[in-house]
Write a structure and sequence with these properties.
Order of helices and strands: EHEHEHEHEHEHEHEHH
Radius of gyration: 17 Å
Structural class: alpha/beta
Shape: globular
Distance between the termini: 18 Å
Helix content: 25-40%
Number of helices: 9
Largest sheet: 8 strands, parallel
Strand content: 5-15%
Length: 273
């Protein structure tokens, strides 16, 4: 069954600056589109949405404009700064590109209060006016903070990245599990089955991550989940191939329709691909 990858990172150091990348020597190198699809296409991944890679602020718009010129990229989720006064001007420029489908401001490495200011929330509330969604990237301990943001912007379509970033190797299922059950009750929030292996250690198995993936799907339901590779971050503890194979094994008992919803159908609807 075909896959639409909703969380592909591409890295072109000759074009853009990535201030965070030197801290991750395993993946501190170029990651180009041809290399990705050489592995992805045989796995059934036919197309992808590019997820912003936290480039230097001066490069944010140029990054999205560039990736939209690449083959098999169905759209882009652009970097943004809702804490800035000129945010509306920024998303107006983004909306000029039909294939920019949403925005993300990385929050899992930011102070909790960043997303709680009145300015941040008011800016986020403008996204539906430009037909843009918001990818919500928060740590497991920040899920209550993320929930408050989603509650304060009920007309915005949110996608929770990386299963809510559970600390699989240490904290485990709780209190992450209860917080996922709680936040999933918000109807304007969807969840992305992605990124979890990066928090599971290099020795993870399908059974290591199964309870986390299954709990997210159970909490959100098959109509509000999408799939993402998190390439090349996935290579910190595995590979794209290993993650796709694990996903297929975990959902093998689901119906064909349910699998299609996770692997491509919901993404096409939520991101308007």
């Amino acid at each position: 069954m075909r896959i639409l990858d909703t969380h592909l990172h591409l890295i072109y150091p000759d074009k853009f600056s990535y201030p965070w990348l030197p801290g991750y020597p395993t993946i501190n190198k170029p990651w180009h589109i041809a290399e990705y699809f050489a592995e992805a296409a045989p796995l059934g991944i036919e197309s992808a949405l590019h997820m912003e890679v936290d480039v230097a602020e001066a490069d944010m718009l140029a990054e999205s404009e560039f990736v939209l010129t690449l083959p098999r990229i169905s759209g882009a989720i652009a970097a943004c700064r809702p804490e800035h006064m000129n945010f509306v001007d920024q998303i107006e420029r983004l909306s000029e590109h039909a294939h920019i489908k949403g925005v993300r401001r990385i929050l899992h490495q930011a102070p909790d209060d960043l997303s709680q200011s009145d300015l941040f929330v008011e800016n986020i509330r403008h996204l539906p006016d430009y037909d843009l969604s918001f990818d919500l990237c928060v740590r497991a301990d920040q899920l209550p903070v993320g929930q408050m943001l989603v509650e304060r912007a009920p007309d915005v379509t949110f996608i929770l990245d990386h299963c809510g970033v559970p600390d699989v190797t240490r904290a485990g299922l709780d209190p992450w599990r209860a917080n996922i059950s709680r936040i999933a009750k918000l109807p304007n929030l969807n969840a992305k089955i992605s990124g979890i292996v990066a928090y599971s250690g290099p020795d993870w198995t399908v059974e290591t991550i199964r309870p986390y993936v299954e709990h997210v799907i159970e909490s959100f339901g098959w109509d509000r989940v999408v799939w993402g590779s998190d390439h090349p971050v996935v290579r910190l503890t595995g590979s794209l191939t290993r993650w796709v194979e694990a996903t297929r094994e975990i959902i093998s008992g689901a119906s064909e329709e349910e699998q299609a919803k996770l692997l491509h159908r919901n993404a096409e609807r939520i991101y308007k691909v």
